[in-house]
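Let us work through a complete example step by step.
Step 1: write down the sequence.
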Amino acid sequence: MRSPSHNHFWLCVSGIFLLVAGTPAGGCTAQAQAISSTPTVEIRQLHEVQQGGSGSFAVKIAPEASPIPVILRLRRFAGTGSATFEDGTIEHRLAKSEKVEVHGVVASDLAGGMALEAWIDGEGQPATSAFFDVIAAAPQPRIFWGGLDVTDTTQTVVVGQQVLLNVTLHPSLDIRSQGWTIEPQGEYVGGFVHTPTRGGPQPVTINGPTVTVYWVTPGPERKVTYHVTTSDGETALANVVFDVEGPSVLDLMVPPVQVTVRPGTAPDSFYMDFAGKGILFEAHFYLPEGLRRNYIWVQLVTRDVIRIRTGTEWLVCRPKSEPEAELSAGLDTDYPYDWRNPTRDSPPIELDPESEEVSRSFHARMYLLWGSGMPNSIAVPTGYVAWHFEGHAVRKDLLTKAWTLTNGSGGPDDPQQPFRRTRSYPSWSTVVPYSGLVDCKH
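Step 2: predict the structure and record it as tokens.
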């Protein structure tokens, strides 16, 4: 649907220029009347200027015999349009009246965003200016990324890199709907939120002239298509293809661990824990040239239940967290859990000397993410290790308050295949701070 042309013309009265809006017969007319021997210049637009086409303008100079030349200049407001004269320049010198052509017109999104100005030698301002709009005959969408036209091109990006695409259409078009299609599905997100109390991927908003997408897995020929439909049912498409680079994990080692009961540093204190330095996670990346070896570990606690018996009474305890860690995944302490490779964990529990039995069932997932470090980028998941710590200890000597381990196990839930590759992000709705405080109930 086309909008009416906005036409203006200039009048010079006693040396003062006035902008007058109107629709003179025959098109857009701008006229300046000057004093003494200064020529009068009239510019008349002969037809509508179509996007991608050309415009014709009749320029009349009076008197014809004036010795003062007239210079036509194309004025382009920044970011709103472009055009040239027949010889490819934006300036054209006239010695007499003639018809001029303006070529290579790009649609302007500002009404009156382009102007044809007539300058007279020696004057400090134009004698006349003919503003004209560019009318889009049909939607001709172009996809821009970072200010560059990437329509019908193949771009190379890195997983987690922000890809913000936009299309700007001429305001004369009456748009019924517009949006984006991204292929293949499931290989991208609209962002990644990570706060202590909330974490997880964000959806992509695909409706409208702008889309922001982050690819989470490497792969070639990821296609993004913009589609628009006008009120009269006319449709148009624009495409861009992305080749996505990123890391692949060659291996993630998790050596076997053993649950033990050990004495603490304080007198009569004992702990139930992993032997040695705890469970170890060591990753080995393969990275394309130029990418950094960033390791982002994120651990979620999916269950942590402690049972304590004193006399005949059993208490069931959990670390301080809302909601309870066994009911939903909680972020272990902070984001990220660690930046180093390898990383470790050891879930020690102090055995209360006033108690007689203590058991603990701890389950977690250690995720490995990778980040490019580029501005506005996000970390992307590579996979996770599901692991556990199970132990049951009994106080064997009332006098020395020593403890013995009756049973215990720990390590990856699947020792044969500890690392599970995934494109799914870790998600949590609470934090498990491990401050030493627990909630206990009968």
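Step 3: interpret the result. Residues 161 and 375 are 8 Å apart (CA to CA).
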